[in-house]
Amino acid sequence: MDSDAENKEFSSKSSTAAPLAQNASFDDAEVVGQVRDISGLESAKAEQGHAHFNRLGWKRLTVVLIVEAIALGSLSMPAAFATLGMVAGTIVCVGIGLVAIYTSYVIGQVKLAHPEVAHYADVGRLLMGKFGYELVSVMFVLQLTFLVGSHTLTGTIAFLNITNNGACSLVFGVVSAIILLLLAIPPSFAEVAILGYVDFVSIMAAILITMVATGVKSSEAAADWSAWPQPDVTFTSAFIAITNIVFAYSFAICQFSFMDEMHTPKDYVKSIWALGLIEIVVYTLTGALIYAFVGPDVKSPALLSAGSLLSKVAFGIGLPVIFISGSINTTVAARYIHGRMFRNSVTRYINTPKGWTTWLVLITIITIIAWVIAEAIPFFSDLLSISSSLFISGFTFYFPAIMWFMLVKKGAWYERHNWLKSAANAFIFLIGIMVLVGGTYASVDDIVSFPSSA
């Protein structure tokens, strides 16, 4: 049970409670109730907490988005290009990137029109009421937990590669989880932005080392890359490749959460374009060049293709991005759950002993679950694929399309000024459904058939 000091609800008529009212759930049944005045200490804590969590400008938002976005996705690109071929790989990579920029723009428009939306889950209520809120909440938390699990798995692979000790995968998995847990302790995204510069330099350096190493090997013996898909490509392998590319553009899931900390939310458009274009360039060059250098035998994650010595160097340099990017997903999930648990309490601001205690317990639970997922699905491409299919298909494609029709569109969908956007959003919705159905089937099929094909 909450203590009396922390369990009092904030009055919507009080100026000190206004920030909380803006960020609280907008379901009348959960906001309206017994209203009591808050103490002077609580008032000070609320104002202090609100100021602490509203410090992001568009430049810092771009850095945080880069931290969350440009990480594991880039490591799966060369293998996806190897399956789809250079032409199809480039088209899919650039095309999905442009779609992701547009859907993120739609998400931002929803946030500006409905400031009370603090996390993606809140949109579920706008679209489908209480059921939608609970459904999207589950998807939101599960996807973020899967992301943390994928970073745990990548950390394990990195440590195994660096040490050449294949007998310690369980130990390295635990070590990776502990590092992710420690980096998730700071609850504010503005604080994570400081690590973002280290994160970005880390992933770019690791990619460049891999490119140089594979390029040198290619100059000694030309790689047999192809402009077209592999002759023996199957539906399963093709969809695994496509969903791996989809995974790379999954930043939309955290956008509401990040924008909720912005002091000028309308500036988000600058961040979206900056991130989207950087991602398209980095992903396309990474996928195309490393595939061209290595050929159809390129590995996933791509750093494994750099050769014995240089792959160790690349993984060592890439450790910051593996853990910093992974930890921010823990923070987003925990911020949502913690805010929901303590909606009308200063505990939600994590600046009291109870707030810090509950925060540490929560991020520990999320990290443990993520570690279990990493142990249960120990195949890098398949883990990314099943995550993309079940969750990113919605957060990046069909949910934003529905948002446009229900929350953003001006006038009827068939009016002349809406024709192009109506067609575009209907197409994006279909993309999401195809990724959901086809990708889920392909992921399960690949995991089930792995022992027989190994």
Spell out the blueprint of helices and strands:
Elements (H helix, E strand, L loop, with lengths): L3 H4 L10 H6 L4 H4 L8 H13 L5 H12 L2 H13 L1 H28 L6 H44 L5 H15 L5 H32 L14 H14 L6 H5 L8 H27 L13 H34 L11 H24 L3 H29 L10 H35 L1
Helix pairs in contact: 5-10, 5-13, 6-7, 6-11, 6-13, 7-13, 7-16, 8-9, 8-14, 8-15, 8-16, 9-14, 9-15, 10-13, 10-14, 11-16, 11-17, 14-15, 16-17
Pfam families: Aa_trans (PF01490)
Protein name: Amino acid transporter transmembrane domain-containing protein
Subcellular location: Membrane
What does it look like?
The chain has 17 helices and no strands. It is 75% helix and 0% strand. The radius of gyration is 22 Å and the shape is globular. The protein has 454 residues and is mainly alpha-helical. The chain has one domain (53-449): Orthogonal Bundle (Hydantoin permease). The protein has helices at residues 4-7, 18-23, 28-31, 40-52, 58-69, 72-84, 86-113, 120-163, 169-183, 189-220, 235-248, 255-259, 268-294, 308-341, 353-376, 380-408, 419-453. Residues 1-38 and 49-53 have low confidence and may be disordered.
Number of helices: 17
Count of strand segments: 0
Q: Which spans of ≥5 residues are poorly predicted at pLDDT below 50?
A: 1-38, 49-53
The number of domains: 1
Reported for the largest beta sheet, the result is: none
CATH class (first level) name: Mainly Alpha
Portion of residues within helices? over 70%
Helix/strand/pairing category: mainly alpha
Overall, the morphology is globular
Beta-strand share of residues: under 5%
CATH topology: Hydantoin permease
Spell out the CATH superfamily: Hydantoin permease
Keywords: Membrane, Transmembrane, Transmembrane helix
Biased composition (Basic and acidic residues): 1-11
Family: Belongs to the amino acid/polyamine transporter 2 family.
Pfam family, one: Aa_trans
